């Protein structure tokens, strides 16, 4: 989510270069043979498209949300078909901003970020769902026996990240649980977790497959209230956005890129340990706790990467519309002048599955 770009305290390490062209290398660690020809068909993964440079913007330092990209890079699958994929490291500019400005062709986004960018007129479109469901939840310390429902959060203190979606989302969940939705917010960014662990605040919204695991491993476990358990609509926590104009002008290259990306994420979903090792290998020195990376990847593979039919990447209008309608009703979808939209958008136009390879 887009709180989320500013809150992705996923990793402790960083990449040092301003522009990292990731060199492809293969065979180490070994990729299961079953994936060697896992994708082909149409103009996608196995089809050479000629030399093409594609810039891919990250939302944060490399982490398990990016594993499929790094799997494909490490295996040399992009290079095999003539694609020179350059990873643009996290910066102060959001990936959607870079894509809209023509400084990147694709990048990591979030359903709410993508919707807000498109509502404001950015020339981006969601082309791939990295995670099929929410990856965050309301997190409280596990030893808080007084907190058994979101309604217990009334009057307490929330450690937030400054994103406009946080407040209405939390209010909706708390009210759905029977509370009033009245609470105090302090914007702490990535310091929110430490504040929670120390007892200075009462709740925050961690990524359960990273900060949740990290908290458990550090002996400060959390318990969670999952949004959808209280009637809140599901959402694609992480998506890949692309440039509408670039995709229009380069349809074969776009389809080929997405086919290989899909192949990388399918391996990450089917073989999480192998994929985690490839992510670590691609980013030497970035991870201080490699077991945390592997446990995170296993959790994503088990719960969030695959759709109901076991594939990766698909999106549907129902999920886009349900959460999109909440954003519209909450008044957080604004036009280029900052005015709330007065007409609900056609959320079916905010994403496309046309570039994906059929299962």
Automatic annotation (TrEMBL):
Signal sequence annotation: 1-23
Domain named SsuA/THI5-like: residues: 63-275
PROSITE patterns: PROKAR_LIPOPROTEIN, TAT
Reactions performed catalytically: N(6)-(pyridoxal phosphate)-L-lysyl-[4-amino-5-hydroxymethyl-2-methylpyrimidine phosphate synthase] + L-histidyl-[4-amino-5-hydroxymethyl-2-methylpyrimidine phosphate synthase] + 2 Fe(3+) + 4 H2O = L-lysyl-[4-amino-5-hydroxymethyl-2-methylpyrimidine phosphate synthase] + (2S)-2-amino-5-hydroxy-4-oxopentanoyl-[4-amino-5-hydroxymethyl-2-methylpyrimidine phosphate synthase] + 4-amino-2-methyl-5-(phosphooxymethyl)pyrimidine + 3-oxopropanoate + 2 Fe(2+) + 2 H(+)
Entry keywords, A to Z: Iron, Metal-binding, Pyridoxal phosphate, Signal, Thiamine biosynthesis, Transferase
A molecular function (GO) term: metal ion binding
Pathway: Cofactor biosynthesis; thiamine diphosphate biosynthesis
Gene3D superfamilies associated with the record: Periplasmic binding protein-like II (3.40.190.10)
Family: Belongs to the NMT1/THI5 family.
Name listed for the protein in its UniProt record: Thiamine pyrimidine synthase
């Amino acid at each position: 989510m887009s709180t989320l770009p500013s809150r992705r305290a996923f990793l402790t390490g960083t990449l040092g270069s301003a522009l990292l062209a990731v060199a492809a290398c293969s065979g180490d660690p070994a990729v299961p043979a079953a994936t060697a020809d896992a994708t082909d068909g149409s103009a996608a993964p196995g089809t050479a498209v000629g030399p093409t440079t594609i810039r891919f913007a990250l939302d944060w330092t490399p982490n398990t949300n990016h594993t499929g990209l790094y799997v494909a890079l490490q295996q040399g699958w992009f290079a095999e078909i003539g694609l020179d994929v350059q990873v643009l490291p996290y910066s102060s500019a959001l990936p959607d901003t870079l894509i809209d400005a023509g400084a990147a062709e694709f990048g990591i986004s979030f359903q709410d970020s993508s919707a807000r960018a498109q509502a404001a007129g950015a020339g981006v479109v969601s082309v791939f769902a990295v995670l099929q469901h929410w990856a965050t939840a309301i997190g409280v310390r596990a030893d808080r026996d007084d907190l058994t429902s979101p309604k217990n959060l009334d009057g307490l203190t929330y450690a937030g990240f400054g994103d406009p979606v946080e407040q209405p989302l939390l209010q909706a969940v708390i009210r759905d649980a029977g509370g009033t939705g009245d609470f105090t917010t302090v914007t702490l960014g990535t310091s929110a977790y430490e504040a929670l662990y120390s007892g200075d605040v009462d709740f925050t919204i961690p990524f359960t497959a990273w900060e949740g695991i990290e908290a458990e491993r550090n002996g400060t476990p959390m318990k969670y209230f999952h949004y959808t358990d209280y009637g809140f609509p599901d959402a694609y926590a992480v998506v890949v956005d692309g440039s509408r104009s670039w995709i229009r002008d380069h349809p074969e290259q776009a389809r080929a890129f997405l086919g290989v990306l899909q192949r990388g994420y399918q391996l990450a979903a089917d073989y999480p340990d192998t994929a985690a090792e490839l992510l670590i290998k691609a980013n030497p020195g970035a991870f201080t706790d490699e077991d945390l990376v592997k446990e995170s990847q296993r959790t994503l593979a088990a719960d969030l990467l695959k759709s109901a039919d076991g594939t990766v990447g698909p999106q549907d209008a129902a999920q886009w519309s349900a959460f999109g309608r909440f954003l519209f009703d909450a008044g957080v979808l604004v036009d280029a002048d900052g005015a709330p939209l007065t007409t609900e958008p056609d959320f079916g136009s905010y994403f496309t599955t046309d570039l994906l390879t059929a299962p």
